[in-house]
Design a protein that fits this description.
The structure holds 2 protein chains of 2 kinds.
Chain A: H1 2-25, H2 29-50, H3 55-71, H4 82-101, H5 132-137, H6 141-152, H7 157-164, H8 168-187
Chain B: H1 3-11, H2 21-44, H3 51-54, H4 58-81, H5 91-112, H6 118-123, H7 130-150, H8 157-176, H9 185-210
Helix pairs in contact in B: 2-7, 2-8, 4-5, 4-8, 5-9, 7-8, 7-9, 8-9
Classes of the chains: A mainly alpha, B mainly alpha.
């Protein structure tokens, strides 16, 4: 009986997060914000459990996963369980980090536990070691400035375009490519 | 950097996302790739002159169905491997089925043939060039398919690279069949397959490096 209630609770959590994401993908910014905020707590719990020996890496990897989920959000299929999608991305980023660190002994932790993903959550947002300002400084202006105006100052596409003397589509492309470039800098490709 | 700040930044002005990204990307990549392969075929080899007569032979259609089935199955695999958290389900079976069917046809053809004919059924007239031409024609498909996959989110990079190679190989073989005179099942079941496996191996080698995100 208790197990059934537990399953119901998880399903309700999955359903609510999924609705937030689907509304977010449709352009509802507050819903998308709520989705990312709640997801970051689940990611933190998930990664903290698996990075017990690397506690300093947890928040960095939470942020890297969030950035990946945002950049790759067009790969979510509305008919698919959200948990499976998020879990696959978090697991991919975790393995990528472990490979990067070349600590093979850490790969022994079993990673096939997507069922548990929504069962724990951790809202205690620590500060990651990397600094957004320094990361942004590494981007070329045509990517950095659209991100600063649109994503940090909250200007609309039209306002940012006018301010920068760029076309609206160039601003959108700049933001999109800039966030992808940030992800590449973080994983050490660039 | 605080995670809440990052979340706020990502959510600000995020806008709507067009659905079916994977399907649209692969449609564009395959359109581009097939035109490239067809152009390459026209420049280098030309369409076989008796293609009209070939259309009347059942084996021509068997050949076309063989490569088309492989292309569709590998496209299906690709669509699943390029997005996180999707299982392959029955896809490996769909890939194996056309190959096994062709091998059954090949076995029947070889058994029923006169022993002196068997070598020709297997080697045909063009076995030396067929695999490399299939691989060559797959190249214009391979690049756009890799590009499409890169813009999505494959999590099993080696497998996704191999699937991208197989998809391009099958499309390359489809285009090549407009030129190729061979129509025997033993030939198709070995040399065509070998040609498609060349880009598959290349994809498996390149995948982990090219597809990382």
């Amino acid at each position: 009986m208790q197990r059934i209630q537990e399953t119901d609770r998880l399903n309700a959590g999955e359903e609510r997060l999924r609705n937030l994401l689907i509304r977010g993908l449709g352009g509802d910014a507050p819903a998308y914000h709520a989705f990312l905020r709640e997801l970051s707590a689940h990611l933190r719990a998930f990664l903290r459990k698996r990075l017990a020996r690397l506690p300093d890496e947890v928040e960095d990897l939470v942020q890297e996963s969030l950035l990946a989920i945002h950049n790759q959000r067009h790969t979510y299929d509305a008919g698919q369980p959200l948990t499976a999608w998020v879990h696959a991305i978090a697991k991919y980023k975790l393995i990528d980090l472990l490979r990067r660190r070349e600590k093979r002994d850490l790969l022994t932790d079993p990673l096939d536990d997507e069922i548990d993903f929504l069962s724990s959550s951790d809202n205690e947002a620590a500060e990651a070691r990397r600094d957004l300002g320094k990361l942004l400084d590494q981007l070329p202006d045509r990517q950095r400035l659209p991100i600063v105006h649109m994503k940090l100052e909250g200007l609309s596409v039209a306002e940012a375009a006018r301010l920068l003397g760029m076309s609206e589509s160039a601003v959108k492309v700049g933001v999109h490519r800039g966030l992808k470039a940030l992800a590449a800098i973080i994983r050490g490709d660039a | 950097m605080k995670t809440d700040d990052l979340v706020a930044m990502l959510a600000t002005g995020a806008g709507a996302v067009a659905p079916n990204a994977a399907a649209r990307r692969y449609a564009a990549a395959l359109g581009l790739g097939m035109s490239g392969a067809a152009l390459l075929l026209a420049i280098l080899l030309g369409v076989r002159r008796d293609l009209g007569a070939g259309l009347l032979l059942p084996m021509f259609w068997v050949k076309l169905a063989f490569v088309a089935c492989l292309a569709m199955a590998s496209l299906f695999v690709m669509l699943r491997l390029s997005r996180p958290g999707l299982r392959l389900a029955w896809a490996p079976g769909a890939l194996a089925a056309p190959v096994l069917a062709m091998w059954v046809l090949a076995a029947i053809a070889l058994m029923r043939a006169d022993p002196a004919q068997r070598a020709w059924l297997f080697f045909g007239d063009t076995w030396t060039s067929c695999p490399s031409l299939v691989a060559l024609l797959s190249a214009p498909v391979f690049a756009p398919v890799l590009w499409a996959t890169r813009g999505l989110a494959p999590t099993r990079l080696r497998l996704a690279g191999a699937a991208a190679g197989l998809l391009s190989g099958a499309v390359g073989a489809l285009v090549y069949s407009l030129h190729c005179p061979e129509l025997t099942a033993p030939f198709l079941g070995f040399w065509y397959l070998l040609g498609m496996l060349i880009p598959t191996a290349a994809g498996a080698l390149l995948g982990p490096r090219v597809l990382r995100w």
